[in-house]
Amino acid sequence: MRQLFIPQGRAGRSELLVVAGVLLAVQLAVAALDFGMAQVPQALGLLANGLIGWIGLVATARRLHDMGYSAWWILAGMGALCIWSVGVAVLAVMIFGMEAIRPEQSTYAVLLGLLVLPLLGGTLWLHLSAGDPLPNRHGLPMAGSPDARPAAAEGAASDLKLS
Fold it and tell me: Are 7 and 57 in contact (CB under 8 A)?
């Protein structure tokens, strides 16, 4: 439970997939309550979404750690996403006019799709990339991870790299 809230250590692909699935289910439940069955108080919805966001951020940081990267790369990704979003919006306005960014226009759905592409790419990269098979500055490989290399094989593998 602690690993859901503290962005230290490593998380393998399977842990990230489980956390993402649970967060998606919780997010859909909150949305269903808010839009369908019962009105969720705004403060409760904000708290739930904040908690979902934090847990997602922690899971991403731990996955980056498993791959040997710093969690600071999340900020770089957010910055790149902001630049991409502004660029797409400006380009759409320059080509199609202000009407292109109005929700009732057909171009709006296309723009939303374009804005989601970098998020989809980053998500696929996090889920499909192998973790660091050796201990790194963020800790030991995840036990049972297909990326983890047995301790006895570490020395043999490093010998093979030298020759």
Answer: yes
Closest CA to 16 of 131, 139, 132, 150: 131
Q: Is the pLDDT of residue 146 over 80?
A: no
Q: How many CA atoms lie within 13 A of 66 on its CB side?
A: 27
The CA distance from 75 to 87, in Å, is 18
Cα separation, 110 vs 155, whole angstroms: 52
Please tell me the distance from the alpha carbon of residue 37 to that of residue 135, in angstroms, as a whole number: 48
**Per residue in 29-59, pLDDT tens?**
888 877 766 666 778 878 888 999 999 999 9
The string of DSSP letters for 14-44 reads HHHHHHHHHHHHHHHHHHHIIIIISPPPHHH
Closest CA to 69 of 16, 146, 137: 137
Band of residue 122 on the pLDDT scale cut at 50, 70, 90: very high
Share of the chain above pLDDT 90, in %: 57
Residue type, 156: A
